[in-house]
């Protein structure tokens, strides 16, 4: 389906998404469902909610956090738009520490560990190369002061893993993640940051928090970011191939039907094609990355 990127002249005066939105399940394409279910269960402590091949849904016993769809012939991620990582927000620093203990106990390699000022984060990849962030937020009153032109201060420094894990030292690794785990944010590869801001900020209604060379972070309600997007795979990258491993769609849960209607009106006014479906609507950004809005 052809995307219809909006022109700035088509956009009505900015309207923002509600502060109390939250993110819903992330849908991923994987090549081996057995392998992926085992990985997300063993390494991340997610429970299998249901499985009807080729689909499996996982979480912590409540709402789905992750939906996996098996496509054995899917090609590996390449130099195109799509998922950089999805991020699972832990309800406390101690729960993030227990997640690190679980990774160590299962000999799961990590790609990095960073202190971002607003949060502490662990980065890793699933067996298909889908990027994952495990993180815990610091209290807002401890977030770094924003720089000029920013609404939140964020940085990237090495994380003190020993200091993170020390409070739970001596505990046995926990088989499952506890309740309170949530999808906290997503980070996407795009082809142009300004074009991404036009879509996600001016049309969809996120607020701009930080813009860096090659990346931007947007949110609702003053959160540090519900969405990041970057051009680190190169400016002008194309949409992901339909048969690639990676993000099928991500989900925003709005508080009520009025919020969904308002979002629909902004999208219609900007000429963005909207797909109506059960319980919500689906749109595609300028790089064909699919987003489902539900209430």
Question: Mind explaining what this structure looks like?
Answer:
By secondary structure, the protein is an alpha+beta fold. Helix content is 18%, strand content 34%. Strands 1, 2, 3, 4, 5, 15, 16, 17 and 18 form a nine-stranded mixed beta sheet that branches. It is globular and about 55 Å long. The two termini are 25 Å apart.
Order of helices and strands: EEHEEEEHEEEEHEHEEEEHEEE
SS content category = alpha+beta
Amount of beta strand: 25-35%
Q: Tell me the distance between the termini.
A: 25 Å
> What is the CATH topology?
2,3-Dihydroxybiphenyl 1,2-Dioxygenase, domain 1
> Helical content, roughly?
10-25%
CATH homologous superfamily (4th level) name: 2,3-Dihydroxybiphenyl 1,2-Dioxygenase, domain 1
Reported for the largest beta sheet, the result is: 9 strands, mixed
What is the mean predicted local confidence, pLDDT?
A: 94
- Low-confidence segments, ≥5 residues, pLDDT <50? 1-9
Overall strand count: 18
Shape: globular
CATH class: Alpha Beta
Label the CATH architecture: Roll
Secondary structure layout:
Layout (H helix, E strand, L loop, with lengths): L21 E2 L2 E5 L2 H10 L4 E6 L2 E5 L4 E7 L11 E9 L2 H13 L6 E4 L3 E7 L5 E7 L19 E2 L2 H5 L16 E8 L3 H11 L3 E6 L2 E5 L7 E4 L15 E8 L3 H13 L4 E4 L2 E5 L5 E5 L1
Parallel strand pairs: 2-5, 6-9, 11-14, 15-18
Antiparallel strand pairs: 1-15, 2-15, 3-4, 4-5, 6-11, 7-8, 7-10, 8-9, 12-13, 13-14, 16-17, 17-18
